[in-house]
Amino acid sequence: MAETIIKIDLTKSPYENEMIHNRWHPDIPMVKTVKPGEDFIIECYDWTGGQITNNDNADDVRDVDLSQVHFLSGPVGVEGAEPGDLLVVDILDIGAFQESLWGFNGFFSKKNGGGFLTEHFPEAQKSIWDINGMFTKSRHVPNVEFAGLVHPGLIGCLPSKEMLLEWNKREKELYDTEPDRVPALATLPYADTAHMGKMAPDAAKIAAAEGARTVPPREHGGNCDIKDLSRGSKIYFPVYVKGGGLSVGDLHFSQGDGEITFCGAIEMAGWIHLRVSLIKDGMAKYAIKNPIFKPSPIAPKYDDYLIFEGISVDEYGEQHYLDVHVAYRQACLNAINYLTKFGYSKAQAYAILGCAPVQGHISGVVDIPNACATLWLPTDIFDFDVNPSAEGPTKKVSPGMDVPLSKDK
């Protein structure tokens, strides 16, 4: 029986738990140390630390304090890990707590976080998804049910001091190009809400002022939001500090490629069962700068897809040069508009694309001036036929509650 080396209490604030941190910094002390070959269980808060509740009101999404996130469990040290090694992490199992079988999906207000389609969905909305074994459905998004591919949205190792300084330098330079932008171009260090784990108070105060925020993915892994990192996945992380310093959090019951609503998966609290090993000097041996991984052999089996194309001409008719971001946005918007023909609101359609196991593909990046991106929507998740036909679409969606919206204050 694997030992649970990090435990949490959902009734208490993560700030009360010294095995939790919400910034990246090389001096954050290891909370536990394990040996290569060992397996263990880690418990995790949802990424907001319990700020979002299971109800029909989106005020908590509107008012969420994003300077606090993400709350991560760790860091865990691995005996013998040295800079330049590869830390090999096997995901053996992962799941929700039995006492908390639900998750949430949110669209953040443009004024507080935004999202991939924030110009089209500028105000806060929230859907709640109930977990029933391997399946989920939502009272806010009717006529759809699908199997989850449970995964950690955020997992990675501590950065070195040099890497932390580089992160802060390049992200500040980007931020300074448009400092008044909403949403901001980058999330800079912010000491007031930092939680530095087991660091002594005086050291924590200094480190908090330079600790990197956990929002973006970086060279060490971090918030990559890759839905295929599930049971049976193997991840090879570059090691930058002695011991590696593995941390994990932001568990998702399910997510579409791109996590397009930003709070774009079905976010949940839960546990993850891991095993670790080392490849000595693996970074140089394999020329690895960023993590690489083997996907899960277990995935929801959906074989029939409706595939939406997008090109790098935006919704306002402006031509962009081989811009995959614009192309994928168009594919998503095309899918949303399509689903409204069956009775879904645009918000319900957006939630489906963020939560369901949709696939995103870069389909072409060489045919100037238009890149082509595609969004693959599994048709079997619906309890009606969503394919085009000569008869045309009919309103199939059950009337009732929409995705709750909270107006900006």
How would you briefly describe this protein structure?
This protein has 409 residues and is α+β, with helices and mostly antiparallel strands. The protein has helices spanning 59-62, 161-176, 201-208, 282-286, 324-340, 346-355, and strands spanning 3-6, 20-21, 32-34, 39-44, 72-78, 86-96, 102-107, 124-132, 135-138, 141-147, 151-157, 217-218, 221-222, 234-238, 246-255, 262-267, 270-279, 292-294, 305-311, 359-364, 372-378, 405-406.
What does this structure look like?
- The protein is α+β, with helices and mostly antiparallel strands.
- The protein has 6 helices and 22 strands.
- The strands form 3 sheets. Strands 2, 3, 5, 7, 8, 9, 10, 11, 12, 13, 15, 16 and 22 form a 13-stranded mixed beta sheet that branches. A 6-stranded mixed beta sheet has the order 1-4-17-6-14-18, with no helix packed on it.
- Strand 8 and strand 9 form a beta hairpin.
- Helix 5 crosses helix 6.
- The chain is globular, with a radius of gyration of 21 Å.
- The model has no long low-confidence stretch (mean pLDDT 97).
- InterPro entries: FmdA_AmdA, FormamaseFmdA.
- It comes from Cellvibrio fibrivorans.
- GO terms for molecular function: formamidase activity.
